[in-house]
Write a structure and sequence with these properties.
The chain is an alpha/beta fold and 448 residues long. An eight-stranded mixed sheet has the order 3-2-1-4-7-8-9-10, sandwiched between helices. Strands 13-12-11-14-15-16 form a six-stranded parallel sheet. A two-stranded antiparallel ribbon has the order 5-6. Strand 15, helix 18 and strand 16 form a beta-alpha-beta unit. The chain is elongated and about 70 Å long. The relative contact order is 0.09. It binds ligand SAJ.
Amino acid sequence: MSNQAAPKSVCVVGLGYIGLPTASMFATNGYRVSGSPVHVHGVDINSKIIERLKKGIVHIKEPGLETVVKAAITSGNLDIGTKPVPSDVFIIAVPTPHHEEPGQAPTADMRFVKSAMESILPHLRKGNLVILESTSPPGTTEKLIIPMIKEAGFEPGKDIGVAYCPERVIPGKTMKELISNDRIIGAISEPWAEMAKQLYRSFVSGEIFLTDPTTAEMVKLVENTYRDVNIAFANEIAMLCEKLKISVWDVVQMANRHPRVNIHNPGPGVGGHCISVDPWFLVGDFPNDTPLVRTARETNDNMPNNVVKIIKNLLGGKTSGKIAILGIAYKANVDDKRQSPAVTIIEKLEKEFKSFELAVHDPHVPQEFYPKLETDIKKVLTGADLAVILTGHDAYKNIDPNDAAAVMKTRLIFDTHNILKAQRWVPAGFTLKTLGNGGHSDKKVKTK
Ligand code: SAJ
């Protein structure tokens, strides 16, 4: 390694859910690396995002993010643009969506990672460190990143350092988890791992583990796949409990009192850009070796069909009317609707219930992301024959059942996240159906 000096400049490519918080954290905490500030250049190919950021408008809603971004820009340690600049360290934090071919398991779409790499190659100098943070199939650093650096005329490991350092933060708690989560650094050799560690240590209070790139890539995928498989198990048990006419919520609650059991929550499906996508990176590359992972994905992807079937049953023989949908975000209290099961369910309802009016509400997702959204919940519930909670937003926990009863045509509500309390809704005259409870919404686990 030709340059072991503490990094003084960082170029972060991709100013999305991960890149923007990360760039801002380096800009505000980088001085801890060597006593003098680290200059950060944030890059995004979307010029609209750059223009808005320059005006102080943060395009991502995340508690605490705006404050850190503004502090970073005001300090002069963070500047932004659409093109990379020469820096000591380059961090790639661009999306890795999945690519689908009919009849085949989806695979990772590495186009954004490739073009981010192409954009930094002209600026690389000996002694630089390239860090990939984007979720990637195991082997990406070895098979994609290192060959591109070699082709640019450098010797990886000697001239240029390479590391894979996955982000692991949960949307909604990004700023907290960026600091407190343990971090994995998979570098091609120890001196580069130390350089990356020194840099992340400027704001990470969790432990930092050093390993090789392929192990780090696998760790990231295994974490999200573990969660997907666990949720699929919970969903399968939920559908069994429907048949058994018992409550999956009681079953999971009591089973989880065993010291070595931790079953996740069932729900209308798994959404977001991580857990519903990442397991496919394993299945896509190893289709014959991942039957469990594939089945879990399919189980979770089938949940919207189960939800639609239950809606059909709840509506009985009705041929027209109104369905109120509460929530389209992929999970509670976020504004993100990517891969949201709620969106899939709405599309299915639009096809199967053509003669019904569908009214959709979400308190977090901006209307510009989903034009059919209605912002007034009372309007959505008025005249409805059924209300369906598809996202467990806190706002829905606090709906007053008497207010809903006053405007709905039929007092019927379907809760796919078990956030409503039967003791509030049943006395207001409602039939409360909870996903996976076989119809017994007023049963409760007795602790004594
Ligand atoms: N869900 C359930 N049941 C549960 C938990 C979640 O049905 O018990 C559903 C949610 O409703 C949602 C989906 O799963 O639709 C995913 O939500 P999530 O909160 O579990 O995870 P994400 O996608 O927001 O963030 C995950 C996190 N990974 C892990 O917890 C292992 C996060 O730490 C990662 O950084 C993130 O993926 C990522 O970027 O990979």
